[in-house]
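Ticket reopened. Same input as before:
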Amino acid sequence: MSGGPPVVDARGARCPVPVIRLARAARDLPPGATVLLLADDVAAWSDVPAWARMKGHTVTLHEDEHWTEFRVVLGERRTDRGQADSST
Amino acid sequence: MQTLLHHLRWSQAGQRYRLGVARSPYDPQVSGLLDAARGPLHPLAAETFDAALSAGWADPTRLHPPGRRARALLDGAREVLADALGVRPDELSVHGSPESALETGLAGLRHARRRAGSRVVAGATERSVLLLQPGVDAVVPVERTGRVDLGAYAAALDGGDVAAAVLQTANAEVGTRQPVPEVDADCREHGVPLLLDATASLGRDPGAIPSRAGAVLVGDAATFGGPPLGLLAVRTGTRWGLPGPRREAEQGREHAPPWVPLVLAAAEAWRQTAAVTAAEESAARTLVDRVRRAAAAVPDVEVVGDPDDRLPHVVTFSVLYADGEVLLEELARRGLLVASGSACSSSALRPSHVLAALGVLTHGNVRVTLPLGAVSPTRADDIDRLCRELPDAVAAVRRRLGTDDL
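Engineering reply: fixed in the latest deploy. New output:
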């Protein structure tokens, strides 16, 4: 995997652990970088896209037979941490 | 206001069954209670229930005096509860739970319409008991606010083979109101009977059921300070019938009559709550607005649901990098009792299907369902305390999980 994007293997971990480990891996990467998450917790299907939306990242899902691969491309770092109302 | 039994001119004769046991004052211990999806009884509903244990214990189908008295009380209570749904008493049946009322209401529509179709059109955020019914195969998606996608709903009605449609008046978890008049009009146009699930709204949100909307209506007495009883109304002229041998009780919709003291408590709760609904609504809305602002001000917290077009007494928000169960415990430690739709905080293996359908965070979820003012005299103080404690409680949970640096 050397040279490829960093991979967070959170298979077997339950919510909110996959998102926490993904956020930790993404923290020190520059905008535009890619990070992969492998997870099999059903909550990750909702939570990873929701996290990406809140943080301005883009995510695509690839279903495997037993888990899901989430490919996250990091957006510009946001400074408005408190944002907030999903409906606005 | 006088209580229902007094109103129905019930004689005090039943009192002799008390055997001289001193009655303990009704104390549901609600301090800090901010999870009233099933709240304690309204104090006067509890009083009526207590009296009805003596006056209304009998089987209302019996012809002896206690049976006739129970029948008279049940008839009086039915009139009151029919008024709650805006229907006639002979259109209303009472069921052991709101889930049972929903299931029965839909089953009767499907069976009566089995030659017209087999599918049931339902939004993605309907209650689980409805989504699990036969015929609900594909659900209609909702917007990020939780409001059902009207175009997709109409397209599902267009699809043919439709037996019935269901729509909640508002969602109990996120509070968002549904476009009831629009969906009702669409269903009429397609000749499809609509089941309106008002279990989250009744007694909390005046006007939740537009007059004559829906073919079948369902409510939950717990929403307005009664016991968790299901109220089912089938409007006259609706094609409706259950499979199997004819049921004898409750307009042919139940196997046995309900226990009258429970129905009386529900009717009393409606009378008391209906008398103050407008004031209750605006007070609840003000308190919930404060929670919405306080939660939105905490870093990485998302307040969920429509900010305006919503139930007055429900608010939910999700806390990034926090565990729902730990958050609940942290708030409980501070004397604040809330609910959560996170998988990790309930016996469910899956997170709330409502939060997932909205596409919002399912972890770190906190839900407040405000108790009625008459049920919880301390609720304004409790909301004060929640708003004050929330930033610190979230920070404490993130510190414990080692996520405060994210």
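Strands of chain A lie at 7-9, 34-39, 58-63, 68-73. Chain A has a mean pLDDT of 86. Please confirm and we'll close it.
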